[in-house]
Amino acid sequence: MRPLYQTQRAMRAIRRAALQRGVIAILDLGTSKIACLVLRFDGPERAGGADGVGPMAGQTQFKVIGHAVTRSRGIRFGEVDSMGETERAIRTAVQQAQKDAQVRVDHVIVCLSGARPESFALSGEAEVEGSAVTGWDIGRVLGSCDVPDVGLGREVLHAQPVNWALDHRTGITDPQGQVGRQLTADLHLLAVDAAAIETLLLCLKRCDLECAGLASSAYVSGIASLVEDEQELGAVCIDMGGGSTGLSIFIRKHMIFADSVRLGGEHVTGDISMGLQVPMAQAERMKTLYGGVVATGVDDRELIPIGGDTGDWEHDRRVVSRTELIGIMRPRVEEILEEVRARLDWAGFDQLPSRSIVLTGGGSLIPGLDGLAARILGQKVRLGRPLRVQGLPQAATGAAFSAAVGLTLFAAHPQDEWWDFEIPPDRQSARSFRRAVKWFKDNW
């Protein structure tokens, strides 16, 4: 784990330096849109906050001073599909945000929804060397975790301690300074495709931007959309984006599982386009203005003009009832929710004390989706909106901006991860990620 450990520590150091300078950019790379927020940090970072034990723990006051949203290009299923188009889209979003903020930014924290995330549960334990637990003891415990085989060409994106136990006491938030003999940690590890990460970092470098952190969109969407009680008692956040649908399970304020379904709102738009023989732009407009998943008797009489400029008078004057439109959209939405239910059943979501389900993301804005989701998932469902942060414009407060808002909270209130602690060299795993590290050394 040594090469990856060093890579992530380097990115943490970059983030810490950017926070001390006071300005950093947030970049949400979605399949349908790219959102950029510029943050200004007003107060110094205070280490050792109540939410963590590592050097990155604490709380920092920040304000959004610039924002920009542009149509995503070159991104498919939440991953970079065309380097040139993605580079131009990122440059457009960042330059507009810099102009709005009237400040230059060189460091960005990025979230992505693709790269096939997969969760692993780890545990480790070690004897406390002194009378009380120190940071060195925590590093020894984390270093004792037996890293699973995440697969060839896979990269660890998150490695977060989710529970601490000291002797017979469990559920400890911060073991440092407490007296005990045997320290145990439970760790959640999230692995993604290394090639997708490397391509994204290379694209940022071509945009003259330095990456100060990476995060999963499913994780940051949960941070922004779940209230404190839901994060504590157990809840799942379903982030329905354009190219993929991410899901993250939280309990005791920690993410314990994450996954994604490679289906999203753009697939619904594609079905409308093929079913009604209209361009994608027209299909997206119809979905936004007239779409839904539950038909009523009134919908038979609501006729929607399809329009067109083909020159064929009969073709350009076509109309379709809202019931027909819903009949096209509903099967695809049901397919997405069925896939989500299968992932939740596999993860054991029904074993949690509280099984709250929160829908967010741009795809969650389809009317009637919460009721359909409740019937398919078998639980009570609510629509989630991101928490308000200071300076956030009204246009960026909707469900489509949950990942962007969550990324601001991820930047200002980072959770402890494996690489925030000094791991003893003799305890680090011998597994190497040579290709990722070689790219990192050649390009940073």
UniProtKB/TrEMBL annotation:
Its main location: membrane. It is a peripheral membrane protein. It comes from the Bacteria. GO terms for cellular component: cell division site; cytoplasmic side of plasma membrane. Signal peptide: none annotated. GO terms for biological process: FtsZ-dependent cytokinesis. Keywords: Cell cycle, Cell division, Cell membrane, Membrane. Residues 24-225 form the SHS2 domain. It is found in: Cell membrane. Cell division protein that is involved in the assembly of the Z ring. May serve as a membrane anchor for the Z ring. Belongs to the FtsA/MreB family. Self-interacts. Interacts with FtsZ. HAMAP family: FtsA. This is Cell division protein FtsA. It comes from Rubellimicrobium mesophilum DSM 19309.
